[in-house]
Design goal:
Blueprint (H helix, E strand, L loop, with lengths): L1 H21 L1 H8 L1 E3 L9 H7 L2 H12 L3 E9 L3 E10 L4 E10 L5 E9 L5 E5 L13 E5 L6 H15 L15 H16 L12 E3 L2 H11 L3 H16 L4
Helix pairs in contact: 2-7, 7-8
């Protein structure tokens, strides 16, 4: 009797992940699209603070204390999430930063800080404390590392500095051109979408909202990275990569 009950309990626990891995990609394929041509609308400081969490407010203060200047606030909205973010620039370090809140309908709010630097080889080096796996696989235009247990911006800055030394060497960085507002971010999203297209994850057509639909292959990849067990595997792989380059962490 206990064995039957145990098997039944295991079956119930597996129903959700099995459904999401088998049926979820088809739902994502039909409903999700990838931002490609984005016109970011400025968001007032009051509106930003109205939506941002206490954790993002903490990152905001830490970034300002570290010498970052605010470029501006904006938001993105799709069928599943609402994202609110503030972009910063540090002229001496030639380093951009973003404090982000992603509010999902069926999940807890994701709050994180990301440091980003672009180099003359066309690649970005990003360090964040996000605790969720990235929706996309590794792309040649970006190297990203996650330290989800780090909530101190100064520690993130030191890790970015160490990774830059090991991965980029003497490769010069490129100015963000803060006076252009969100133009650099919009350009990156277009480049990211084009890279996903080259990998067969999205279709070439762009709709009236500036988005590309996913291919079925792309939907399977994104779903696998977002649900158990793929999500756990992706996060573990990111942590192993960080330990590989910063073995003392």
């Amino acid at each position: 009797m206990l064995e039957i009950a145990f098997c039944g309990l295991v079956g119930l626990l597996l129903i959700g992940p099995l459904f999401m891995n088998a049926i979820g990609p088809f739902i994502v394929w039909r409903t999700q699209k990838i931002p490609t041509i984005v016109q970011f609308e400025p968001l007032s400081d009051d509106a930003f603070y109205e939506h941002c969490s206490a954790l993002v407010q903490l990152y905001d203060q830490q970034l300002r204390d570290a010498g970052f200047l605010v470029v501006g606030n904006s938001s993105m909205h799709d069928s599943q999430t609402d994202s609110y973010f503030r972009v910063y620039w540090h002229d001496a370090l030639k380093l951009a930063a973003t404090a982000v809140d992603i509010i999902g309908a069926n999940q807890s709010t994701l709050s994180y800080c990301e440091l980003s630097q672009k180099y003359t080889d066309g690649c970005w080096l990003n360090v964040s404390n996000s605790n969720r796996s990235e929706a996309y696989p590794e792309l040649p235009i970006k190297q990203s590392f996650q330290f989800p247990d780090t909530h101190d911006v100064d520690v993130l800055l030191e890790r970015h500095k160490q990774l830059r030394s090991k991965l980029k060497g003497d490769t010069p960085s490129i100015d963000y051109r803060a006076e252009h507002g969100f133009a650099e971010m919009a350009a990156f999203l277009r480049e990211e979408s084009d890279t996903l297209l080259a990998k067969g994850l999205v279709k070439p057509e762009i709709d009236a909202d500036g988005k590309r639909p996913l291919t079925l292959y792309g939907a399977f990849v994104m779903t696998w990275r977002s649900v158990w067990p793929g999500r756990v595997v992706a996060v573990a792989a990111k942590r192993r990569l960080a330990r590989r380059w910063l073995p003392s962490d």
